[in-house]
Description:
The chain is an alpha+beta fold. The protein contains five helices and twelve strands.
Amino acid sequence: MTYCVGLLLKAGIVLLSDTRTNAGIDNISIYRKMVLFEEPGERVIAILTAGSLSVTQTTIARLREAIEIGDEGRSIMHAHTMLQVAQIVGNTLAEVRGDIDDKLAVMKQGASASMIVAGQRRDGEMRLFLIYQEGNFIEATEDTPFLQIGEHKYGKPILDRVVRPDTSLADAQKAVLLSMDSTLRSNLSVGMPLDLCVIERDACRINLHRRIEAGDPAFRAMSDAWSNALRDAFQKIEI
C-alpha cells in the first residue's frame, strides 16, 4: 500500500508520497510513487500513484512512450489544458487496468490503482485531480483543497483542521509531512523514504523536489515536536 497527498493552494501546489510497496510481510520494496514531467516556463505535471504496481508502472510507461514518439493525441506534454491531461491519464489508466484484468480473470483476480495528477500549463490555471481506476476523476476545489490516495485515513484529520486555500507553502509542507508522520505511525504498509514536491503558482516548473530518507534529522525533529505538542495539549484539556 502507499500514501500520497496533494494540496492545491492560492500560492501553489504541494505534493508528498511515500515509497513502500508491500506484497506481503516478507516482500517489502521501495518504488518511487511520484513522477514529474517538466518543460520549464511552459508546463509542469506531477503524477502520484497508489495501488497495483503493475497497473501504475504500465500506465506511466505508456504515458512516457506517447511523449517520446510525439503522439499529440495521447501525450500529456502536448495537451492544451490540465483537464486534457487528466483525461489522457484517466483513459490510459482505465485501458491498462482493463488489459491486466483480462489476464487475471482466469485466476479470478483483479488489479486496481488510482492517481493524483497536478500541474499547470503556461497561461492556464493550476489544477489538481484524483483519477479513479475506471478513468473518471474529481478535482480539488476551494472547499476541498487537498486530495489523497492510498492509506489516507490516518493523515486526513490534520489536513481537515489546518489546510485552507490561503495556507502558505511553508505551512502546507509542514501539514503534509505531519499528515504522513501520522500515517507512518499507524500503518506499516506505508514507509520511508518520502518524496516532497512544491510547485509555485505560475512558475510552470518544479520549485522544490526533496527526497526525505529514513532517519532524516529535520523530519525526526518535526515528528518529535508534534508528539510533544499533542501530549501537552492533551494534558491541558479538562473534562
